[in-house]
Write a structure and sequence with these properties.
264 residues, globular
Length: 264
């Protein structure tokens, strides 16, 4: 078995916490499915949208800033920050955890988070929870594609629920928070995650409920299976051992091989 200090997720079952988080996730989703709850969420959505999107009025530089924040290359920058936080120590992970953190997080997204997201997407279609985003529904709406037509910004979606971008960021923040020894720093990954979710809401490509309800539901269920069961850690241990020949091969590449990821 790998040393204990390389543990990223959990090595023990915690049925009460697993049940509690599932209950919380479905209560959150239920608040959005019931007509009364959905009406309250839409009131919050509209208030947040008009406040944030309304700030674009009359300021070309401010609109262009948010337009650039909504281009696809900004998503690449977000991904790079997540990768750096999982492959360098001191950003939430210890050196001994780096290989397991990166490998385990990729597995977590591909085989836990994405299936939950697809199931929620299907459920949303049945209950008619998904539909046009705020920029296509509300008026007045200041659309980035009109304010900055030379920037290929995403400012609309025909099916905006749940927020895929948000679900990934909630999972990433949760992994870092669980492994942080200094609790005072736990707000840092949350603040970073929210900052990267914000452009979609400002531009109107997502409602705030897409992020809070849709992304929150997916994140809660995903993190529950990561940190209240030993399953993900067992898979991570096995994959880390299996991939050691590949890791050693890359460690011989000049400069790349000097990164702490290759020397746990």
């Amino acid at each position: 078995m790998p040393p204990e200090n390389s543990t990223v997720f959990s090595r023990q079952w915690n049925p009460p916490a697993l049940l509690r988080n599932h209950l919380l996730a479905f209560l959150l989703l239920g608040s959005f499915i019931l007509p009364e709850g959905q009406a309250l969420w839409r009131q919050l959505d509209q208030s947040i949208f008009f406040t944030l999107n309304g700030s674009l009025e009359g300021s070309t530089s401010w609109a262009r800033f948010w337009a650039w924040a909504n281009v696809r290359s900004s998503d690449i920058a977000t991904g790079m920050i997540m990768i750096i936080s999982l492959t360098f120590p001191g950003l939430g992970m210890r050196r001994a955890q780096l290989q397991g953190a990166f490998i385990g997080f990729i597995f977590l997204l591909l085989f836990v988070m994405f299936p939950i997201r697809y199931a929620l997407h299907a459920l949303a279609a049945v209950f008619e929870l998904t539909g046009p985003s705020a920029s296509l529904t509300l008026e007045p709406a200041f659309r980035l594609s009109e304010l900055a037509p030379d920037i290929p910004a995403k400012d609309a979606s025909l099916h905006s629920f749940p927020g895929d971008h948000a679900a990934v960021l909630w999972c990433w923040a949760g992994v870092l928070i669980y492994n942080m020894k200094q609790r005072a720093l736990c707000l840092v990954p949350v603040a970073i995650a929210v900052a990267f979710m914000l452009p979609r809401v400002v531009g109107g490509a997502h409602w705030s409920s897409d992020i809070l309800v849709g992304g929150g539901f997916v994140g809660l269920l995903t993190l529950s299976w990561a940190f209240h069961t030993p399953l993900l850690q067992q898979v991570t241990d096995a994959l880390t051992r299996l991939l050691q020949p590949v890791i050693r091969l890359f460690s011989h590449i000049p400069f790349l091989g000097r990164l702490p990821f290759f020397h746990p």
